[in-house]
Amino acid sequence: MSEPSLLARFSVINKFIKHRDDFITNLIKQRNLKDYFINSNLAIITFSAVYGATMGIYPGGIQVLYSALKIPMLLLIALYVTAPSYYVMSSLFGGRHSFSQMVILLLSSLTVMSTVLLALVPINLFFILTTANSTYSSYAFLVILNVIIFALAGLFALVYLLRGFLSMYPGISWTAAFFVGSIIFMFVGTQLAWVLRPYFHYYPQFIRPIEKNFYVAMVELVFNLFRGID
To answer: At a CB cut-off of 8 Å and minimum separation 6, what does 35 contact?
Structure first.
C-alpha cells in the first residue's frame, strides 16, 4: 500500500472538525491512532510555522525563520510536557483510556488551535504590514494583538478538548482532570512562549537570556503602553 500523499495527511483537519463523532469513535476503539498521531503533528507543525513566519515579518531578517521554528516548538513542547498530567489525573478519577488515546485527543485539540491560527494569518499580516516598526506603542499593539489571537485559538482548542472529554469520560469524574490539566497547560504554554522570545524584535540569537516571566512582562507592557512610552 502506497504512502498517503501530503494533501491526504492534512485531511485530518476535516476529520477532526467535520467528522468529530467518527474520530471520537475511532479514538475510543483505538483505530487509526498511528495515522492520527502522524497527521496531527504534521498539521500542527506546518500551520503554526506559517503563523510564526508571519510574526517574524515584523522585525524581518532571520527572525522570520526563527519564529517559524518557535511556534511549533511552543505548541508541541507544551503538549508533551502536560500530557502526563492529563493522563494521570484522568486515571486517578476513574478514566480507563490509554496514554496514547489521551495524547491523540490533546493533539486533535492543538490541531484545531493551529488551524484557527492559520485562518487568522491574513488579519495578523494585515496589521503587521500596516503598522510602523518604529515606536514602542506599535510594538506593544502587535504583541497584545497576537496574545489575543493565541487566546482565541486556545479557546477553540479547549472547547474541542472539552467535548472530547465529555464523549470519552462519562459522568462528572473527568472535570477535575480537565480543568487542572488545562490550567497546567496554560501556565506551561505562556511561560514557554516567554522563554522562546523574541518574536517581534530582531535578535541575532535564537532566544534571549531568561529573565522575569510572561505575566510580569505583559503587565509592564500594558502599563508602559498606557503611559504613552514610545
So the answer is: 4, 12
Residue 91 lies in a domain: yes
**Which residue intervals of the chain are DSSP H helices?**
6-10, 12-17, 20-28, 33-56, 63-92, 99-119, 121-129, 136-168, 174-195, 214-227
- Other Cβ atoms closer than 10 A to 20: 16
Q: Cis omega (within 30 of 0) on the bond before 198?
A: yes
Quote the number of domains for the chain.
1
> pTM of the predicted model, to two decimals?
0.92
Range of the domain at 129: 6-227
- Is residue 1 a part of any domain in this protein? no
Burial of 7 (0-12, 13-18, 19+ CB in 10 A): exposed
Q: For 95-145, what is each residue's pLDDT tens digit?
A: 788 999 999 999 999 999 999 999 999 999 999 999 877 788 888 899 999
Give the span between the Cα atoms of 214 and 177, in whole angstroms: 25
Cβ atoms < 10 Å from Cβ of 196:
20
> In this predicted model, what pLDDT tens digit does every residue of 10-66 receive, in sequence order?
889 999 999 999 999 999 999 999 999 999 999 999 999 999 999 999 999 999 999
Q: How far apart (Å, rounded) are the C-alpha atoms in residues 119 and 150?
A: 12
What lies within 8 Å, CB to CB, of 17 at 6+ separation is 112, 115
Q: Are 145 and 196 in contact (CB under 8 A)?
A: no
* Nearest 10 degrees: Cα torsion 188, 190, 195, 196: 110
Task: Report CA 71 to chain centroid distance, whole Å.
Answer: 8
